[in-house]
Structures are given as structure tokens and as C-alpha cells.
Write a structure and sequence with these properties.
Blueprint lengths: L1 H38 L4 E4 L13 E3 L4 E4 L6 E2 L10 E6 L2 E6 L7 E2 L2 E2 L4 E2 L5 E4 L2 E6 L6
Parallel strand pairs: 3-4
Antiparallel strand pairs: 1-2, 1-11, 3-5, 5-6, 6-9, 7-8, 7-10, 10-11
Length: 145
């Protein structure tokens, strides 16, 4: 009787492990599938922070199709309700296949790869952009550039 129960629990435990692994694979697949539309056309900003650790709502990915402004005001293309971000904090411009970033005289500054920027800088793949409590990874797309 004990051997039969042991065998049943063993197979039940193995089944639970397989279901857990399949669930993780499914989540990875869905994440990659949702990113495929963004990655095929335009460069984008990918949030590095854990989304659930921030006290405000923010998206994981922002595409860079044209000139966008980021700040606290709703008039910006990307409005982030972070108290450490200025009303109009930063501008990112896509111009002739090149992407440029410019701080708009923000109070707390914009940091590119750890250095505060005061002028217009050309972004390159893998650059880390930090302002306020958020940090983004710039991902270029060689197809559109």
C-alpha cells in the first residue's frame, strides 16, 4: 500500500513540475510574441526597472517612430507620473535613421550610461537612459536605420 501511494505521489509531483515548466515557456513565448511587432519596425525604449516596483503606471516598451517628449504633463507623447521627472523632461528625435536625445532643462537631469547629459547626444544600441526613478534600454533596429 505504501509503495502504491509513493508511486502516485512521485508521478503527481513530476506532472506538477512539467506543468510549471510549460507555464514558464508559455509566458516567455507570449512576451516574445508581443515584442515582435515593435522589433520589426522601429527602434524602441525598453523599461529596465521592474514595473511592479514603481509607484506609478508605466509601459514596458515605447516605440520611437518620430520625435517624442517624455515628462509628467499629459501633453507629452509619453506621460510618466514620477515626482522626480519634470513637466517636460526629455525629447527623443528620430531623424534620417539616427536617434538623438536631449534633456529639456529638467530639474533632476537625464543620464545616458551614467553620465548627465546637457547637450544633444546620438543614441546607439544598448545605451541606458535614466531620468527620475525609471531607466530604459535603447534598442535600435537595423532594418529602419
Amino acid at each position: 500500500m505504501f509503495n502504491l501511494l509513493s508511486l502516485i505521489f512521485r508521478y503527481l509531483f513530476i506532472l506538477i513540475i512539467y506543468l510549471f515548466i510549460l507555464g514558464i515557456i508559455r509566458l516567455i513565448y507570449l512576451d516574445i510574441k508581443s515584442m515582435s511587432n515593435v522589433m520589426n519596425h522601429y527602434p524602441y525604449l525598453k523599461l529596465i526597472n521592474r514595473k511592479d516596483s514603481l509607484p506609478f503606471k508605466i509601459k514596458e516598451v515605447y516605440t520611437l517612430e518620430d520625435t517624442i517628449t517624455i515628462g509628467r504633463k499629459k501633453e507629452n507623447n509619453v506621460a510618466i507620473n514620477d515626482p522626480y521627472i519634470s513637466n517636460q523632461h526629455v525629447q527623443i528625435t528620430l531623424d534620417e535613421g539616427e536617434v538623438f536625445i536631449e534633456d529639456l532643462d529638467s530639474a533632476n537631469g537625464t543620464y545616458l550610461n551614467g553620465d548627465r547629459i546637457v547637450d544633444v547626444f546620438k543614441l546607439k544600441n544598448g545605451d541606458r537612459i535614466k531620468f527620475g526613478q525609471v531607466e530604459f534600454l535603447y534598442v535600435s533596429n537595423e532594418v529602419c536605420l
